[in-house]
Amino acid sequence: MRRALDLQGEAWNEVVRGLPGAHVLQSWEWAQAKKANGWEACPLVWEGDGGVPEAAALVLKRPLRAGGINFGVNVLYAPRGPLLDWANEGLRRKVLDDLQAFARAEGAIMIKMDPEVQLGVGVPGAEDAQEDAVGARVSEELMQRGWRYSDGQVQFKNTVWVNVDAPDEVLLGRMKQKTRYNLRLAERKGVVIRSGGEADLADVYRMYAETSVRDGFVIRGEGYYRQVWERFLRAGMAEVLLAAVGDETVAGLILFHFGGRAWYLYGMSRNAHREAMPNYLLQWEAMRLARAKGCTVYDLWGAPDRFEESDSMWGVYRFKEGLGGRVIRTLGAWDFASRPWFYSLYTRTLPRLLALMRRLGKARTRQEMLA
Fold it and tell me: Pfam families per the record (predicted)?
């Protein structure tokens, strides 16, 4: 392993694109977006014969601070990394050994990772569900090494992928009948989809805030999202799509694309004209745009942990399933505690801190909506 400080910008992105599981959260643009929030990028590369990269991890590092006090320790996180062929047992052992050693060398409390190692596809128990032997082996190995399934899951553990590498008629044919009906209904109701840009981002954030208040999830302040969205738009790695009824913009999404895959990371809508089903037509155009950008997979970003109606993600999942997608189940986030005492304290304190931040975040967003 080497700390690849010489690989930045597009040079780093080329390494990432060439590895299995290339992900937008491992891109240099994501590292720069997180830098604005105090995270330092630590790009790591494992090279094989002839210096060809065979594994990589964009590890983010941030000092642990609270109340203006710097505790002199760090936390490390590899979002959707490391990237490698997880079926390669020797390489897998090497990468995990090195990550554990890196965490100790950096004085970190812990290192968190959530690589897209698949445990299976399809809803568990369904006739078409399939389990992945590699994922099962990796889970077992992590436990043997002392890694712990994290109480702090940052990204969604499960998601829904739509294969967009097909003609329109095939994509439509994979959808649920009700989804196709709602898509056509949106067209009949006069919903129009247009491309947006940086000039629309203030309105996009306003819709996002309205969505968060209505659906009960917490978002950050506008400045955070603006700098992320602007960075990826300027890099040519994101597109804004907006749905309008008449002169009123009623829904939108930001489509990220990188390494042959697209992601629905941010979606937003207003309460107005929901009966016109704008989100159905919006997702249809996003699928077609992803295909036009050379992507084969459209990741709808999020599915339930438990595939039961009681799960808070159930309604969203049913909408995504209707688009013709298939459930992808992954390992989720795992932590290696390089300083166990600090880690124990951190994991006891963090949930209370996050709960407080969520309450404050909801209150702040509501206040912004009323301003």
Answer: FemAB
Q: Are 76 and 112 in contact (CB under 8 A)?
A: yes
Judged on CB neighbours under 10 Å (0-12, 13-18, 19+), 44 is buried
What are the extents of the domains in the chain? 2-113, 165-295
Q: Which two tokens stand for residue 360?
A: 């404050």
CATH annotation of 2-113: 3.40.630.30
Share of the chain above pLDDT 90, in %: 84
What count of Cα atoms within 13 Å lies in the side-chain half-sphere of residue 158?
23
Compute the mean pLDDT over every residue in the chain, rounded to the nearest whole number: 92
d(CA 337, CA 151) in angstroms, rounded, equals 13
Q: Residues 6 or more apart from 23 whose CB is under 8 A from it?
A: 16, 79, 80, 81, 83, 116, 258, 259, 261
**One fold for 2-113 and 165-295:** yes
Largest Cα–Cα distance of the chain, in whole Å? 61
Integer Cα distance of 143 and 150 in angstroms: 12
| Residue-wise pLDDT tens digits, 158-184 | 999 999 999 999 999 999 999 999 999
Task: Point out the least confidently predicted range of 53-57, 242-246, 362-366.
Answer: 362-366
The structure's pTM equals 0.92
Measured from the Cβ of residue 357, the count of other Cβ atoms closer than 10 Å reads 12
